[in-house]
Predict the 3D structure of the following.
Amino acid sequence: MNHLALWRPVLVVATCLVACGGGSGVRASNEFPPLNPDVPDPGIDVPSCDAADAPCGPCDDGDPCTVDRCECGTCVHEHVALQACDAPPCSPEGSCLWVVSRASLSPAEKVVALTLQGIVAKNRPGLWIDGAGWTGFITDLADRHHVTFRPAPAGVPALLSAFRPAIRGYVLYDLGQASQTVAAALAGPWRAVAIDASIEPMAMEAGLPLLLDARGRDAAWCLGQYAPLFAHDVLASPTKNDQFSGFLLDFAAARNAFVFHGGNDDFTTAAVAAAGGAPVVYGWGPDEHDLVMRVSKGGGGVVGGDWSSNLSTLSLVKEPVLKQPASPVDVPAVEDGTHYVAFVMSDGDNLHFLQNVLNTEPWYASPLRGTFPMTWEVTPAAAETTPSILQWYYAHATAVDTFIAPPSGIAYSYPCYNPSLDALVAHTATAMAAADLRIVTVMDDDEQMGAVDRYLDQPGIAGALYKDYAGYNDHKGAVRYRNGKAAMAYRYRIWQTGSAADTPKGVAKALNAAPANPRRDSASYSLVSIHAWSTWPDSPFGEGSMGAIAWTISLLQPHVRVVSAEEILGHLTRDLEGAGPLCGNGACDPGETCGGCGADCGPCIDFCTFSACSGTQTCDSCPEDCGPCKTTAPMRFEAETDLSHDFGHLDGDGWAATIDDPSSGYLVRGPPTTKVPGGWHTAGFLLAIDAPDATDNPVVAKLDVYDGSAGKVLAHRDVTRHEFQAAGAFQPFPLVFDALAGHALEFRVQFTKKSWLSVDAVVVDG
């Protein structure tokens, strides 16, 4: 083979390591200074000699993964991954990978192989760890991307020797202990393999200097010492079991990702927040809800990847364009007398599901696939981490397979907790465009659909599906509009652990009895979530998820038509008369306003522009001032008689407090009431202050609607001084909230002691 220029990263070590013989295993201080990844690599000197005086003869070792040359009388066989790369990291296109047998490695050796794999991939990929993932994806890399796979030299020492020029040293840890996260995290920015104490002689034999003895250290210490070294867009959260030794760590090393064990603790939130922006955490934790909540509070989202392998290589594969076969989905003319339903497979947020098992018989490899329209969740993160795998699914889709983004876009996050939601949504839109996905699924933890608005504000996102965390279908098909686009909540689910209504027979029965007036009634459209892991032994079509869908479809009456989720959203925006809002259907639907849909509205409340409308006027007489439409009279709770007080005093028509009053708790709160119907409502807090035109503009009141039955705040807002129009005049401040029927609600006002404040009443629409 030709002798090509080689990539030779400099071996950067502290002076003490060189002077004290770090390469021979002499311990370095635990306070080893951070290595600077931005320092240029000048390379390692190649011994010079007169080639004429040191002939080698033929040097070709027959391995396509090596570059062979004669060096001072010795044949050198260097892996092609060490060749110079114009703009690292380079794609494995047309390259050669050594295949390392996962089964041949101990847990400690797997960590070495994974961190080495990630370090090498910083230039170009050189290793592939076998024994996980569908083998067809390897064939696809060979066929379409001309990647050659060859067995690697046996044993970790041989790998360390072969890739020695790419390694700066090693970090010592104890397997299965907290120090393992430290070694795995520093592997990337330091280009250091992670070495368990039991196999340290291997590193010493390879001549690697010890960069840090991390034993006794943990992830919190590591973040405190070396936070600037880690990537801002990605973190890794491997689980505390065998997966920690066998998966994901190559990707962390390649991307300089901070490594920690995510869970229900403050450090999870702090670690994500420290990255800044809206980072994606690859991996998992001990509890789904708690992990996602904590990551969400830090501004990020989770991509299930604790069983993911070879992402350092797969993420560098280039696909010219990713395109669904049905792109965009055709939306035929709507037919009267028809109920439209779409079946959507869950769990597409899991990257390792896509890589390891989705293409098996219960799901994508089912012989039933292609016999009915099917909507598949698939994470847009695949466009960034496994583009060739995503392309394989698209290339093998039938004419009735379509794909949408899972919760909640680029990563699984609860929008209600996320302080960086706009950044996460922007990343979602970019990744969805790259993955040719137009519909996003949003899952939230506050039983409200309002978060879909942020997604529908993105030009490239054409619509949204919504499901609640706990039940998936708690909103029972509610429809919400934004920018001429529709968002629809799941109406049904097929879930083994649910009730009889959640079985194939129960869902089919409900669909057969559902409305079939698709031009006038949004209830004529249904989304059904298929729980990917449920099994149905009684199904005549097979016990897996696809068998459950086929069983349900076999029980449907002719007027129920199965389509894609994207087609349903298309009908909602194009064919439902008065869509966005649903004017004329006799109901006050979410998103309707009195000004836009007076025909469906009854009494209005003056909540919008605060001019002349009162609580007894109608939408026709006062459309410009009305909020969400309601058909019944509003409820009024007087502050001085209907609400409770923790402090304050009666002051004319209101309950008031001054800056000199002692205050603890709420100025007003209560009643509580269970009389507010389920659905969207507006509460108007009638407040007054004494000096709205003062120079400073502090928060003078904090308002919220509290669901005592669920133990959570449904909506909240701060009110500042300059929002008031006149001194001493009661003015309504609105809060829009989504109530569940029968829940006990309280309307609460906190006093900030920045101004005299009086509360007259809280008015809630019907």
